[in-house]
Amino acid sequence: MKAIRTNNTNIFFNSDVYSELNQFIQEKQPSIIFILVDTNTHDYCLPQFQQRLESGDIPIEVMEMPDGEEHKTLDICIGVWEALSEYNADRQSILINLGGGVVTDLGGFVASTFMRGITYINIPTSLLAMVDASVGGKTGIDLGGLKNQVGVINEGAMVGIDTSFLDSLPRNEMVSGFAEMLKHGLISDKNYWYTLTHLEQLDLSDLDQLIYDSIVIKNNVVTKDPKEKGLRKILNFGHTLGHAIESYFLENGDKTPLLHGEAIAIGMILETYLSTKVCGLSHEALEEINSGILKTFSKVEITKEDQKYIMDLLRYDKKNSHSVIKFVLLEAIGQPKIDCVVTNEQILEAFDYYSN
């Protein structure tokens, strides 16, 4: 597959990943190569990756963090920064983030801030990270239970998409990534949406091209608006309520935490309903989107009490301006509208629609 060029870097695919990575290392001759993994990618991805990494005499240090969104924290960052210092990292070192979105988000932030910035490379191993987290240069960590409250936008030196890593991914993680692909169709390409919602099953043999197409959609948006001043906001469709739901289920000990894509799927249904109230989205489109998402995602019980706490979390959304909550909604499939304002009553109606 042909490499995708972003504003500042390239995204390579499958066998090209290793030839390009090894050439980069040979040319740059870093002082030390650091590889950040989590407990899962340490076992399932690191051996395969190291077999294909050609470092010559350059020393390699592997740093392992716990897996899971609950560990995308400042405490873990401090641990990684301290490990870099302990192993004598300097500004000529590089950090390779081998993992899902938590690893690439946190690792990119660590690299962007250590010694005011060292080179980093993302090798995403989950579907979610391949189509979303590793593309566009957003790095960061959560603050308490609040998603991505601290971070910077800074693209790595390259991104390597090796879809063979998906072979070991659990089905729920595959489904989580699929939510972002559905979102890309809804905000940009009705035909892509149609293709995704008419797959008989999520088959790895179909995925390479679908992943490629999803990355192209996101990259087309990011290259036009790298700092999220306007157009890039459309990538947040489903995320205003989705992030609040994800944060609530993560922090509430009585709830089973939701994967990112599971929460975003709920957020997309809720925000599609809001689109009918604010942007004139047709009822037919609402039902098509609702049924398309629920082909893959199971419904989750959200009580009236839950809704109060979720709505309270909306005030922390990064798109807010002057204490006004701003939504990305749809005028039609493939036609998003940014900076939409909705009422609390309309949000509660959306929850009723989802529940019923």
Automatic annotation (TrEMBL):
Residues 63-175 form the 3-dehydroquinate synthase N-terminal domain. InterPro entries: Dehydroquinate_synthase, DHQ_synth_AroB, DHQ_synth_fam, DHQS/DOIS_N, DHQS_C. Keywords: Cobalt, Lyase, Metal-binding, NAD, Nucleotide-binding, Zinc. GO terms for molecular function: 3-dehydroquinate synthase activity; metal ion binding; nucleotide binding. Residues 177-320 form the 3-dehydroquinate synthase C-terminal domain. It comes from the Bacteria. GO terms for cellular component: cytoplasm. Its EC number is 4.2.3.4. CDD domains: DHQS. Pfam families: DHQ_synthase (PF01761), DHQS_C (PF24621). NCBIfam families: aroB. PANTHER family: 3-DEHYDROQUINATE SYNTHASE. This is 3-dehydroquinate synthase. It comes from Winogradskyella epiphytica. The lineage of its organism: Bacteria, Pseudomonadati, Bacteroidota, Flavobacteriia, Flavobacteriales.
